Amino acid sequence: MPRIPLIAGNWKMYTSLAEARTLAGAVVSACKGLTDREVMIAPPFTALATVAEVVRGSQVRLAAQNVCWEEQGAFTGEIAPGMLRELGCTMAIIGHSERRQIFGETDALINRRVAGAMRFGITPILCFGETLAEREAGQTMAVLERQVRAGLSGIAVAEPANLVLAYEPVWAIGTGKTASEEQAQEAHEFVRNLLLDMYEKSIAQQMRILYGGSVNSGNVDALLRQPDIDGALVGGASLKADSFERIIHFRQ
Ligand code: PEP
């Protein structure tokens, strides 16, 4: 069975409420009639309720940019999965390199977030990727293996759609430097084989692995033509309606 491509927009810490409403409206329009791909947007927490109203009834899925593992409690600054569900969120980005690098999130913490999200019916998009220094030191695959195995430690997956992975080389995020199709495919194939080692074949073969890192309207087609690239996690280019529309309409 072919994997359904997923185009995911990460708005990071951008957009006022008015901007979020307009951008979400443009994404909803861009998706009309598309049946062979899924589209998701992750506004900042403050805009989730506003964007939820705009995407309601459309095929655009709503995601959070992070999620706590606890149902409720004394966790200042965190958001519980149930709170996100209440807003209509069905997905959450977890382990983004900005969380790892700027906010010190560890593989162990990220693993708790993945487990918590899944327990409450939120589909995690688990991000992982090597830094430039790690790539230059020949450690790329070892880093990917550590992050994927640790991030998914103890995580059972009953349905392949319940978990999404995203390979995001740190050196390609927000830098305008994209991994070549060959570099990306090599990493994705490696991770696919890891999944095959960790999960049943039918599950591992159906799980989606997105590529993220300076994806834009000019490089999306070539990246998504690679056999193990099942979609894109897009930062900067998801903030401009025209470029994100072109990415949504990628041609394989
Ligand atoms: C991201 O935020 O996950 C990302 C890949 O950003 P950009 O597309 O701007 O590199």
Overview of the molecule:
The chain is of the alpha/beta class. The chain has one domain: Aldolase class I (TIM Barrel, Alpha-Beta Barrel), CATH 3.20.20. The protein is built from eleven helices and eight strands. It has an eight-stranded parallel beta barrel, surrounded by six helices. Strand 3, helix 3 (81-86) and strand 4 (89-94) form a beta-alpha-beta unit. Helix 1 packs parallel to helix 2 (48-55), helix 5 (107-119) crosses helix 7 (140-151) and helix 7 packs across helix 8. The longest helix is centred in the C-terminal third of the chain and has 18 residues, at 181-198. It is globular, with a radius of gyration of 17 Å. Bound molecules: phosphoenolpyruvate. The site of phosphoenolpyruvate has 15 residues, from strand 8.
Write a concise synopsis of the structure shown.
With 252 residues, this protein is of the alpha/beta class.
Quaternary structure of the protein: single chain
Q: What's the mean pLDDT score?
A: 97
Number of strands: 8
Beta-strand percent range: 15-25%
Residues in helix, %: 40-55%
What is Rg? 17 Å
CATH class descriptor name: Alpha Beta
CATH superfamily: Aldolase class I
Ends: how far apart? 17 Å
Query: Could you state the order of secondary-structure elements as H and E?
Result: EHEHEHEHHEHHEHHEHEH
Ligand set: phosphoenolpyruvate
Number of helices: 11
